[in-house]
Each structure stands twice: as C-alpha cells, then as structure tokens.
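Question (not urgent): is this output format expected?
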Amino acid sequence: MKLRLLPIVALMLPLMALSAEVGDVVKFDAPPQKVGRDVMQAFANRKSGTSFSGRPVPVKDLGNILWAANGINRPESGMRTAPSALNKQDIDIYIFDQKNVYKYDPKPHAMNLVVKGDHRSLFTERMKTPVIILLVSDVSKFDGGGYGTEDDFRRMGAFDAGIVSQNISIYCSALGIATRVRASMDGPGIQKLLGLSAKQIPMLNHAVGYNK
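Got this back:
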C-alpha cells in the first residue's frame, strides 16, 4: 500500500505549491544578486512591446520586477530601489492579472489581494497582457510640510512614477520580458475599484508579458 500511495503524494505537492501562490497573500523569494543581461545590454535592447502572447509571467519573475520597480534595497533604512521626492515614497504598485488585483508591499516583498476578478478592461483593450502593473502616486504624502502647491505635488508624483516606470522597463529588458508603458486607462474607474482617494492618482501602467 505504501508504494501505491507515493505517486499520489508526489502529484499533490505541485498542486499544494500552486495554491500557496494564488492566495490572498503572495510572498516572493528574495531577489537574486545577478540576473539577465548587464545594464548596458539592457539599455541597448530596451523597446516597447507591440504584440504580446498569452504566455503567463512566472510568479518569481513578477516578484523580481516589483522589487526592481520600487522594492527595499536597504533594509536598515527602508530605502527603495527608486528615489522619490523628499523621500516620501508616494508610489504604490497594483498588479492586475486574469484573476485578481493585488497591491505590492515592499517590506515583506509580497503582494496582497485587493479585489477579486479580472479588471484589466480598465486599461486599453488593444493590449490585454497577462499582467498589468499600475503606478499610483499618493500625493497626500507631500501635504503639511510647506513643500509647494497641489500642482507641485502632482508634478512630483508624476516624476516619481516615471522613475519607477523606467526601473520596470530596464529590468524587463534585461530579462527578455516585453513591456509597454502607457498613460491610457480609466482613471475614475480604477479609483472607484480600488477605493482610492482624490489624492491617490493613477499615473502610469505597464503592460507586461512576452512577445508573440
């Protein structure tokens, strides 16, 4: 009997691992020290994707993209891979896939379920890639310090989103993952879906996948 049960247990292990990946919290492995092309090759090969396949992005690669985008690279201080105006760390990252919407949490290097369901239709239908990464600036983090006007805060948030966006583009280039940065999206629909305030502004989104 023991010999007959072993194959069944072996078949169950991959299923158990898969169910752990698609739950309310997706915990990523620590990012590797070295991966893909060197930085000059990544710049030389950077381009916007124009035609995507339906091939899914592996969880491991998605975690590395999110860490490169705006993860914590100095745990002792909580500093990020991307600079931000006045170090307010105003950029939040949301991940839209075929099943759910998640929010990236840099401290545990994980993403937490926000909304169930496929909501990629809030972005341009012309490129419904397996993953869409949304960059939101919480400009309320600039309030109260005498740093400028509301227009200044929005401008700082836009600059910070652009830096995070570039991190995504360069990492994807280094790994041979296709991406395209876009401003087109249903901003009010996204704010309603995610429960964002008027000062949490969707700035940019990245279509992420693989070339056909």
